[in-house]
Amino acid sequence: MGKADSCPAPTKPNLNWHLINHSKADHDLRHLIVDLSRACKYISYAIQTTEAGLAGTKNEFGEDQLALDVLADNLIREFLCESGLVCCYISEEQPDIVELDPEGQYSVVFDPLDGSSLVDANFAIGSIFGIYKDGNVIGATPREQVAAMYVLYGPRTLLVVSLGNGKGVHEFILNDVGEFVLLRDHLGIGDDAKNYSPGNLRAITTNPGYKKAIDSWQEEEKTLRYSGCMVADIHHILSKGQGVFSNIGGGEGSKYPDGKLRHVFECGPFAFLAEEAGGAASDGTMAILDKEITSVDQRTQIIIGSKNDVESVASLVS
Ligand code: AHG
Ligand code: MN
Ligand code: MN
Residue 29's closest CA among 91, 111, 108? Predict the structure, then answer.
């Protein structure tokens, strides 16, 4: 008897089942994604149980106290070590590339906790991951990712993942027994945005192009949806099937001349997911996916979401 006869599709496919049967992920990549999802379950629990007020503070001796950023970074590291599949990783919390298992075939780039300054306000926060084959992320472009994923810790814990190549972008929810089960498959982004999400808004005083973009969104009476957590703000776009998110640099003397966000572990993974969902991601002049990664802390402007709006804002800010 064939497998399909003896094992009908489950009514609620879990992440592992979906990676095997829908995405046809190869064995090691599937294990790596599942291991990352396991780390995120612990992060989700830590967010609920670790005192938010302590995160990122110093004690009276000037020593760093337990921060959720560091905790999340360590948890992910533990799971990457356990997997034995990863030769190196780049994390927002580490100054350089970290070497792990010389035999490992994959590199992982990640922001362990994105939007962590919002945790005491009980806003949603997230983790972002990009996966590359081999160890040469510096000099590569985000198009070379073999998978990208994020986890959003909000009222519900959601995981969104894609293996690219037309396999789609899929959303899972963490259930009460600790399993990520399919919530919606094939999330898509339509060509026109009704919602806008303008990051690094402080730049409009020194960047007239960005000011024009904001003015046009307001004139078009688009609806503002901005939380200050990139994961939540871009998930809003994938969830609603439209929207545009931006983080644009300021002009001379400004705090973030290239925008605030990092190319390798913030913009790259989201650009991979957005294009796979039918949207676009640009730095104003080129696709984020084709922009070379030159260093671990490289920043880049980004306009991401509905194609037509990405294009029109790019023409104003480039
Ligand atoms: P992190 O918490 O990892 O440092 O990232 C926060 C980021 C990102 O999530 C968000 O889009 C951006 O900071 C918000 O910045 P501004 O609203 O100040 O532009
Ligand atoms: Mn971040
Ligand atoms: Mn972070």
Answer: 108
